[in-house]
Batch of 2 targets.
Target 1
Amino acid sequence: MTGPNHDTADASKVVHAQVPLSQDARRLLDSPNFASVATLMPDGAPKVEPVWVGREGDHILIATDSRGLKGKNLALDGRVALSVTDYRNPYEQVLVRGRVIETRDDNDLVVLDALSEQYLGKPFPRRKWSSRVVYVVAATVARYYKSPLEHTPS
């Protein structure tokens, strides 16, 4: 329980079991669908931004610069939430809560190039990075949902 009379510092230390990703969740993660990833600022405030995501088995991969705000936030608190919507039908989605379980160097851009192939169809065009990393996320909640609504913008 959190609130003004409860210590929230222990909340970031709670460990939840990893859940497998459904076939539908895997399909959305394997397609060029943008994810919105939420990290926690040092004061506990959420920060959300769009990212490319990849998948390695039941783990979700996020490539970024470790010196950016997202990287700094994840170094302090590895809890994340992701929302991935199908770019053709935004009423189809997978919602994930999880934790970073591993941070890998990606200065040779192997993972970023694979993500760029998924999203752009070619290697990542900007080649100079000094602190590229890949965050490996284990999902503790992964909920797929497809609404019967139809996306018909005018």
Target 2
Amino acid sequence: METHAAVHQPLDRRSRPLRRSLEGRMVAGVATGIADHLDVDVVVVRVLLVVLTLAGGLGIPLYLAAWLLVPDEGADEAIAEHLFEELRR
């Protein structure tokens, strides 16, 4: 008789939730977290953010939005969620 045991596959990096990295940070861990999530080199993400900043300034608001909306590794909530909870009190 054949048994159907669960086969454990390694998690695809993109199947993990996006988190700001605690290791390899230069500012807030946004670029490192995105690079880990997408499985690309962090330099690619940083260069893309610089290009977006220089070509119209979009890199800065995107970075700030990610900093506020993406939680740190090991955190249950993002900075924005924490701020909204504090404002409701």
